[in-house]
Design brief:
Helix content: under 10%
Strand content: over 45%
Structural class: mainly beta
Shape: globular
Distance between the termini: 30 Å
Number of strands: 12
Number of domains: 2
Length: 187
């Protein structure tokens, strides 16, 4: 199966919004669809989305039901390193030509955590580098879109107070893409 998350209309019938769709690999045959999907968990091996799935009942009425999808990344994406590049820095969009060039190697995890600065629980995406214990975070993180080999997370990037500058939470966005392992014959 192939998971695509994008802005579109659910089953082509309603208002524009974010939808997650599962297709048969190599086809455009739609297997399932979630309206307003939210990312609730992310690891190297996969992710969990929740949202509303609609189907027709025996009276041909459209019924919306809460649904959760546990998705595993297909090989080689389940084991290869990710590259993460900031799409927004201090709330300002980075030119797309620089986004792919300036990626960090590591991986991203997303958990639901209590965030004292927000005074509540929130989805927190953390970038973790294997070589250092360096951690970068997006608060209130969510999946903006997903294609076959990359996805984008959005949220709030917190910058601590420094000198006379107060603490600020900027609009933040990361492009996450897979860095497949090279075969010995590849250069």
């Amino acid at each position: 199966m192939e998971l695509i998350v994008r802005t579109g209309t659910d089953q082509g019938m309603r208002q524009l919004g974010k939808v997650a769709r599962i297709y048969e690999v190599g086809t455009r045959r739609l297997m399932a669809e979630l309206e307003n999907p939210r990312l609730v968990w992310l690891r190297r091996s996969g992710l969990v989305l929740t949202g509303i799935e609609r189907h027709q009942n025996e009276h041909k009425q459209l019924v919306g039901c809460s649904q959760t999808w546990a998705c595993k990344f297909a090989p080689p994406y389940d084991v290869c390193e990710m590259r993460i590049a900031e799409r927004l820095v201090k709330g300002i969009k980075v030119a797309s030509r620089y986004v792919r060039e300036k990626g960090w190697e590591g991986h991203v995890v997303l958990n639901q955590e209590y965030v004292p600065e927000l005074g509540r629980h929130a989805a927190v995406a953390s970038y973790i580098s294997g070589s250092t214990a360096y951690r970068r975070c997006l608060l209130d993180a969510d999946l903006q879109w997903m294609s076959e080999d990359r996805f984008s997370l959005g949220g709030l990037h917190r910058v601590l107070a420094h000198g006379r500058e107060p603490e600020v939470a900027y609009d933040g966005s990361w492009l996450c893409f897979f860095n497949p392992p090279r075969h010995q014959g590849d250069r």
